[in-house]
Each structure stands twice: as C-alpha cells, then as structure tokens.
Amino acid sequence: MGHNILYIEDNHDNMMLVQRALEARGYRLLKGFNGLSGLEIAEREDVDLILLDINLPDIDGYEVARRLRSSTKPTLAHIPIIAITANALKGDAEKALEAGCDVYMSKPINIRELWARVEAFVPMP
Amino acid sequence: MPNIPTFTPSLTSMNPSYLTHLECSGCGKQYSHHEVHTFCPDCQSPLLARYDLKKARLKVDRDEVTRRKKGMWRWRELLPVLDPENEIFLGEGDTPLLSLPRLEKELGLSNLYVKDESSNPTGTFKARGLGAAISKAKELGVEKVIIPTAGNAGGAMAAYAARAGIKAHIFMPKDTPFANIEESRMAGAEVVLVDGLISDAAGMAGEKARAEGWFDVSTFKEPYRVEGKKVMGYELAEAFDWALPEVIIYPTGGGTGLVGMWKAFAELEELGWLKNTKRPRMVSVQAEGCAPVVKAFEKNATFCDFWLNAQTIASGLRVPKSFADHLILQDIYDSEGTAIAVSDESITESQKQLARMEGIFAAPEGAATLAALKELIKQGWVRPEERIILFNTGSGLKYLDHLG
C-alpha cells in the first residue's frame, strides 16, 4: 500500500503536468508549493518518493534535500529523492547529488522518463 | 564571375512538400504543421515531421531528384517548407563522400569513407539543421529565435537568421571556440556567454525564451532541425546507389544527425527507393569525459542519466544529456549498433592522422569517429570488407584556439 509521491514545485503548470502523469499510473500526488511546506508534508505524511524542484521561492532544493536527509523521521534518511530543475547552472546536478538527491532530471520533464525513474524506486500500483 | 550559390526555382521546385503533420515521438499525438510548435506539451517529448509518403512514392521520381541542382533543397518534397520562396539557401548539403585509401590500407579495411560536412556553410553540419529550422520559422512568421549552443549551431543559426531577416539570440559557454563567437556576432546575433556547459546555456536560454516569447531552436525542442539533418541519410543512400552501407560511425552530442539519418532510412524504405532493406549499424561516438549515451547503452537503458562534470576537447560532444536521448538509444538498439567512448588523446591523435594521411583537417568530433573505428577494429566489431562511413561534422579550422 501507499504510493504517495510528494512533488515540491512552485510552478503550477509543472505541478499539473506531473499530477496528470503520475495519477494516470495510479500514484497519489502530494503537493508542496515551496521548500518549507514540502518539508512539512514530508514530516507529516507517509511519502514513498519525493520529486524536488531546485529553484524554489523560499529555501532552495539543495537545502530541502539536506534537511530531509538530517530529519529525525527515520524514513526520510533513505527516501528516494529525484531532483528536477530547468535552470541547470554549472554544477547543479553535482550539487543536487551531494545534497542527498538520488537522481537528477532536467526540465522539460519527459513523462516517459519520469514514469521510468519513479517506477525504478516505487513500483506502479 | 564568382560562382555564388543562389536558389533558382525550377519547374520541379514548385512541387509542394508532402508534409502532413507533426507527431509526438513519445505519445503519438498529432499537431498541425501550420502552427509554431516546440515539443509535445502533453508528454514533453520531441515532435517529428510526418509526410504522405504513399503519395510521394507515386509522384516523386527518385532519379529526377538526383538530377536536380545540388543542395539540400532538391529533396524539398521530403522537407517541411511548403513554399520554396521560404527556403533559405546558403549552399548547404551535397557534401563530399570521400574514400580514405591510405587509412584503409593502414587499418586493413577495403571500403572506408568519410562524409565530410566541413564544406557546409559556416563550416559544419549544423548548417543543414538550422537551414531547415530557420526556413520553416520564416514560413511560420517567427521574428525572433533563440538557441543554446556549444558553438557551431549558434554560428549556423546566426547566418541563416541573418539571411531570413530574423533576429537571433545565442547563449553559449564562455569557453566556446572564438570562431563561433565571432561568426555569430558578425552575422548580427546577440551573443550571451555563459559560465558553464551547454546544459547551463540551455537552462538560461529556455528561461529567456519563455519570458520574451522568442522561438527556442534548441536541439529537438523544435521539430525541424532534424529534417535538415536527415538529408545526410538521403545523400548517403544516393551515393551508394540506393544500397545503404553497413556501418555509420557518428559523433553524438544532441543526436539530431543520428536520429535524422535513421528517420531518413525509414522514409526511403517507405518510398520504395532502396535496393536493400538492411539498414546500417549505427555507432554513437562520445568522449570519455561525457558519455551519457554510452553509459545508458551499456546498461540497456531507455534514457540517459545526466552526465556529471562533463569535460572534453570536443565541445560538440559536451552534452550531459540530450533531450532526445530515448530516440538516440532506440535507434542504436534498432540498428543493432553500438555506442563507444573515446579519450581526448585518441581524438587528437586521430585528428592528426586524418590530416596527415588524407589531408582532412577534421573537427575533434569528426576525428572521434576515427578513434572509435580503431577501437571497433580491435574489438572485431567491424569486418574488413564492410562499407564504413565516418562522419566529419565540421572543419578543424573552427577550433584553432583549442590546438594551443
């Protein structure tokens, strides 16, 4: 049971696109529209995987990843985190992995790739 | 009087393109070719141009196309521009297919060739794709275009945009070869130098495109560059009297050429123009310092992982992840091909070898194909009698500042 995917992303278009794609595969999407609300949801809910935008309006995705990894909630230390960003500035991918993300994806988000990457961690319900 | 390339419409040039629609390579959704499109908004995969090939098969005479005036647009029935008036021609296409007799002997082969793309306008194969994309953009009424580039695509876009009267904006890494920066500026483009790789430039250009409403001509983020590139496949088929060669060794950054040629072979097959139905084995060549396709191929994966800390002297191969990675991989698998990474040292050595033995001053990306061939011979992956095509994608003259 439990195929909850948390997407931390401030862009509503991307949120809708990913919601449509993942719900089509039977996943339930939890939405965090900034870094801090995303962290709060991760602490509160049972989450199986986190999709994490790097460019967020409050704290950036690297900081979110670091806080998730150092959380007192045991599951968050190992939860799969897929970093997603459009603004791939120099070293962004490297920084995302150093911060604790497992995989790095660049926007535009190819939906088939998203499915494949999510299913590699959380089998389709 | 100098022989200046000009486009002179002939009776046959008035034939329309057989373009019917655009199709998403991921979900198959169709889009109108009369509107400006980037990539599929639903699944965010590249769009590909589709043609009424059944009708073209009945109406287009292969041998008549062969007799036309040289250049990419002689294939206009199979290209996306509807009105020949919109074709921006600078002399692209019909590059030489050269035999390599001294290298053949050295390597123990009997049918080795190079398709030398350095004679294209702006000195590289990028002219084909950008020629097609800018021509179509003009037809669709686009006024401003933007591109992230490792260098050569920027120079090509600037040239075609200048001729089309379209304003060009270019984002390129700050260590891009000087020739690319200057040729772009000379053609009137606005050039922004980015502290990073082409993926960084792509992120910034994408943001700017969204903010300003400029048309983004990034690799595979619009449907028409691949159409220009596919003509390399048509030309190869024609050069081999419509019996495709056994092996094509191609340097892979964004992968437009590889995907384009594979598309061309499928189209030629549907047109009934080929004498053999056995398609070439496609070899994707990357640099050891940036080899996402090779890594994915070795894992039999469908997509590439983003390559970290990408580094190579072959700037065109410094693409940490292509937007069309799944198409590149699929085509390699379908062709029973392979993917191979070569070192910068072997690229440099091969660049010298091509120049000293055959008089071809190749771009490092082109030299990488010779480096890969030597490795494939060692592995026994190619047979001595096979017809093997190397692709030199550009002139070494555009990389002089990298030679030290």
What ranges of chain B have pLDDT less than 50 throughout 5 or more consecutive residues?
Answer: 1-13
Oligomer kind:
heterodimer
> What is the succession of H and E elements of chain A?
EHEHEHEHEH
Beta fraction of the residues of chain B? 15-25%
Give the largest interface: A-B, 26 and 28 residues
Query: How does the helix and strand content of chain B classify structurally?
Result: alpha/beta
Strand content of chain A: 15-25%
CATH superfamily of chain A, by name, is Response regulator
How do the SSEs of chain B run, as a string of H and E? EEEHHEHEHEHEHEHEHEHEHHEHHE
> Runs of chain A with pLDDT <50, length 5+?
none
Q: What is the level 1 CATH name of chain A?
A: Alpha Beta
Number of helices of chain B: 13
Q: Number of folding domains of chain A?
A: 1
**CATH topology descriptor of chain A:** Rossmann fold
Annotate the secondary structure layout.
The complex is a heterodimer of chains A (125) and B (404).
Chain A (H helix, E strand, L loop, with lengths): L3 E5 L3 H13 L3 E5 L2 H10 L4 E5 L7 H9 L11 E5 L6 H7 L4 E4 L4 H11 L4
Parallel strand pairs in A: 1-2, 1-3, 3-4, 4-5
Helix pairs in contact in A: 2-3
Chain B lengths: L18 E6 L5 E2 L15 E5 L1 H7 L2 H6 L29 E3 L1 H7 L4 E5 L9 H14 L4 E5 L3 H13 L2 E7 L4 H9 L3 E5 L3 H15 L2 E2 L8 H15 L7 E5 L4 H16 L9 E7 L4 H7 L26 H10 L3 E5 L1 H15 L5 H16 L8 E5 L12
Helix pairs in contact in B: 4-5, 4-8, 5-6, 8-9, 12-13
Written account of the structure:
The complex is a heterodimer of chains A (125) and B (404). Chain A has 125 residues and is α/β, with parallel strands linked by helices. Chain A contains five helices and five strands; from the N terminus they run E-H-E-H-E-H-E-H-E-H. Chain A has a single domain (4-121), classed as Rossmann fold (3-Layer(aba) Sandwich). In chain A, strands 2-1-3-4-5 form a five-stranded parallel sheet, sandwiched between helices. In chain A, helix 2 (35-44) packs parallel to helix 3. The longest helix of chain A is centred in the first third of the chain and has 13 residues, at 12-24. The termini of chain A are close together. Chain B has helices at 53-59, 62-67, 101-107, 126-139, 152-164, 178-186, 198-212, 225-239, 256-271, 292-298, 325-334, 344-358, 364-379; strands at 19-24, 30-31, 47-51, 97-99, 112-116, 144-148, 167-173, 190-194, 215-216, 247-251, 281-287, 338-342, 388-392. In chain B, helix 5 links the parallel strand 6 and strand 7 (167-173). In chain B, helix 5 packs parallel to helix 6. The A-B interface holds A 17, 21, 85-94, 97, 103-113, 116-117 and B 26-27, 39, 42-45, 195-197, 199-200, 202-204, 206-207, 221, 302-303, 305-306, 308-309, 320-321, 323, 326.
